[in-house]
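hey m, so remember when u said the tokens were messed up on ur end? i reran from scratch. heres the input so u can diff it against urs
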Amino acid sequence: MYICYNEFMQDLSALYGPLFGFSDYKIGETVTFRKGGVTQHGTIIWVTAPGQVVVEGGKPHGVEYIVDTGGFPEVVVPGQIIVE
């Protein structure tokens, strides 16, 4: 199990960039968020560091949470999270 967890974390780091350690919410926390007019719930699986989007003409972005909602992970920004 430990090896699988490390591989999973390495995969997420390769996909989303380095884990950001200074955020309001952490990996494993469940959050409620509103995106596209729909309220959803999910578990944070990664927190991206602020930086430049890696596409031509990409704009800087702030902290982003990668949230598992049971389907394809959602990219959620702090302003979309609903504090209950």
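this time it looks ok to me. Helices lie at 2-16. if urs says something different then somethings off w ur setup not the seq
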